[in-house]
Amino acid sequence: MSDRFDEIRRQIAENDERVIALVNRRLELVAELWQLKAELGLDVVDPDRERRLRERLASANAGPLSPGGVDRLVTALLELTKRELGA
Ligand SMILES: C=C(O[C@@H]1C=C(C(=O)O)C=C[C@H]1O)C(=O)O
């Protein structure tokens, strides 16, 4: 295969590893926030906050991911967070 082919694959792998590291960091931060919410007697799940998160990320998206793609990604992220943290 060409050098460019290998280089593209290397960059894809590097990006994928960054995505995993960022998702792990996100989980740590949400876990910390939920601990504080629990101490304050608040519900950990906040549908209004989730709606605003969805709107903010839709606005921040510069593409090529489609608006529908952003929405699916946010849905997956929120579901994953709740499953991992046991909400
Ligand atoms: C992170 C929060 O808690 C919950 C988890 C969210 C998330 O995974 O991003 C978003 C909203 C809440 O349902 C928050 O209230 O900000």
UniProtKB/TrEMBL annotation:
Question: Where does the Chorismate mutase domain start and stop, copy by copy?
Answer: 1-87
* SUPFAM superfamilies documented for this protein: Chorismate mutase II (SSF48600)
Instruction: Fetch the Gene3D superfamilies from UniProt.
Output: Chorismate mutase
Q: Which domain of life is it from?
A: Bacteria
Query: What is one process in the GO biological process aspect for this record?
Result: chorismate metabolic process
Instruction: Kindly name one Pfam family recorded for this protein.
Output: CM_2
Q: One MF term in GO for this entry?
A: chorismate mutase activity
Q: What is this protein called?
A: Chorismate mutase
User: What does the record give as the organism's lineage?
Assistant: Bacteria, Bacillati, Actinomycetota, Thermoleophilia, Gaiellales
